[in-house]
Amino acid sequence: MFRNQYDTDVTTWSPAGRLFQVEYAMEAVKQGAAAVGLRSTSHVVLATVNKAASDLSSHQRKVFKIDDHIGVAIAGLTADGRVLSRYLRNECINHAFVYESPLPVSRLVVRLADKAQVCTQRSWKRPYGVGLLVAGLDETGAHLYYNCPSGNYFEYQAFAIGSRSQAAKTYMERRFEAFNNYSRDELIKDAIFAVRETLQGEKLTSSICTVAIVGIDEPFHMIDQKIIQEVIDSVEIKEDAAAADQAPAQDDDKSSEAAPMDI
Amino acid sequence: MTCVAIAGADYCVIAADTRLSVGYIIYTRDYSKICKLADKCVMASSGFQGDLKALQKNLAAKHLIYQHQHNKQMSCPAMAQLLSNTLYYKRFFPYFTFNILGGLDSDGKGCVFTYDAVGSYERVGYSAHGTGAGLIIPVLDNQLKSPSPLLLPAKDAVTPLLEMEAVDLVKDVFASATERDIYTGDKVEILVINASGIRHELMELRKD
């Protein structure tokens, strides 16, 4: 993407029918640290890579609990993500107050998408620079949505956003058909695997990785660091035993055919 | 329609009867007037139950926001201030409720806060509200052996009684109030808050 004369304002169309400011906002998501989501029929798992700005600082918070039945993982401008999380929490609280029941996930993502769309049609605003993976459970089952700065949203079986997310997507593309029948623990394991793919060889430890889960009879919560480390260790032991005969890094899929999870 | 709370050194007892009546009609014998607001904080109220329901929902929503922002439960004194502010917010169209807040403060000591309808509140050692309060408070004054609130220097008003003794006293005062107050009876719901959590007890009262 290069600078051109149609990208100054969010309210300026290009002759090709594009809103460049919105597309630049989506670039911000692609630059953020990776976040991954997977869904089965009864559980949804979110996993993120937590980059620290330096060794002295704490890690970024990228996973937020919205309500007992909904949580989000973000990639991009984390400040925008924090503010949107506050909005989502308020919406859930207000709905529960009036209707005495949890806000269905599909309704929440629509409100979020409408809020994002407003910023693409006001000259005095800018689009939110954050993509959100919304994981939730309601009467209709388990759901995973991706909300875009453009105001679009899609439902996914599994998805990854942020830098080097294509590696995670490729990993999940091979397996996603089986996800619906996965057990809770298999889902967690595959989420950690998918996150590991985005690290492209860097060592995966529980300190740079956050995993959260929501399921039937299981309110949204972060998984304890010890358990994450156990899963990572058990995986590495198996790999060492198998003499590491699989290629550790996946090549980015640069072919132009649309993979199931490309927008 | 009566509620009572007693604060001890490391526990708090809150109780309310379960009769809901209007005039000479009993609507139900099984209505809970107690609400758990936070881990160590429980509220009991007498008065208009419609406003009580709304007030409970209001506080629960505010508590959820607090938990999201601060990553922890509200302490009892914090909830006490929040309740006071919530009540005064509607100073010119009040919640018609007479509330008692009970729980453990941040030091683990029992605390009871007593309110009027518009949010005036005070931390006390024990309190009662409702139709049977007039019959109960004199008995508590006499039996709880609490230091007088008029003493100087001011002494902590919690009762030196043991938890078991306080619960027995609550059962006794409710049985007595039931004898003479037509609006009190059916059952009394007793909650005991201590370091290990919240214990729930239901005792039968006279049905007449």
From TrEMBL, chain A:
PANTHER family: PROTEASOME SUBUNIT ALPHA/BETA (PTHR11599). The keyword Nucleus applies. The 20S proteasome core is composed of 28 subunits that are arranged in four stacked rings, resulting in a barrel-shaped structure. The two end rings are each formed by seven alpha subunits, and the two central rings are each formed by seven beta subunits. Residues 6-28 form the Proteasome alpha-type subunits domain. It is found in: Cytoplasm; Nucleus. SUPFAM superfamilies: N-terminal nucleophile aminohydrolases (Ntn hydrolases). GO terms for biological process: ubiquitin-dependent protein catabolic process. Its main location: cytoplasm. Keywords: Cytoplasm, Nucleus, Proteasome. It holds the Pfam family Proteasome_A_N. This is Proteasome subunit alpha type. Coiled coil: none annotated. The proteasome is a multicatalytic proteinase complex which is characterized by its ability to cleave peptides with Arg, Phe, Tyr, Leu, and Glu adjacent to the leaving group at neutral or slightly basic pH. The proteasome has an ATP-dependent proteolytic activity. GO terms for cellular component: cytoplasm; nucleus; proteasome core complex, alpha-subunit complex. Residues 242-263 are annotated as: Disordered. Belongs to the peptidase T1A family.
TrEMBL record, chain B:
One of its GO terms (cellular component) is nucleus. It holds the Pfam family Proteasome. Keywords: Cytoplasm, Nucleus, Proteasome. It comes from the Eukaryota. It is found in: Cytoplasm; Nucleus. GO terms for biological process: proteolysis involved in protein catabolic process. Belongs to the peptidase T1B family. The 26S proteasome consists of a 20S proteasome core and two 19S regulatory subunits. The 20S proteasome core is composed of 28 subunits that are arranged in four stacked rings, resulting in a barrel-shaped structure. The two end rings are each formed by seven alpha subunits, and the two central rings are each formed by seven beta subunits. The catalytic chamber with the active sites is on the inside of the barrel. Component of the proteasome complex. Non-catalytic component of the proteasome, a multicatalytic proteinase complex which is characterized by its ability to cleave peptides with Arg, Phe, Tyr, Leu, and Glu adjacent to the leaving group at neutral or slightly basic pH. The proteasome has an ATP-dependent proteolytic activity. Component of the proteasome, a multicatalytic proteinase complex which is characterized by its ability to cleave peptides with Arg, Phe, Tyr, Leu, and Glu adjacent to the leaving group at neutral or slightly basic pH. The proteasome has an ATP-dependent proteolytic activity. This is Proteasome subunit beta.
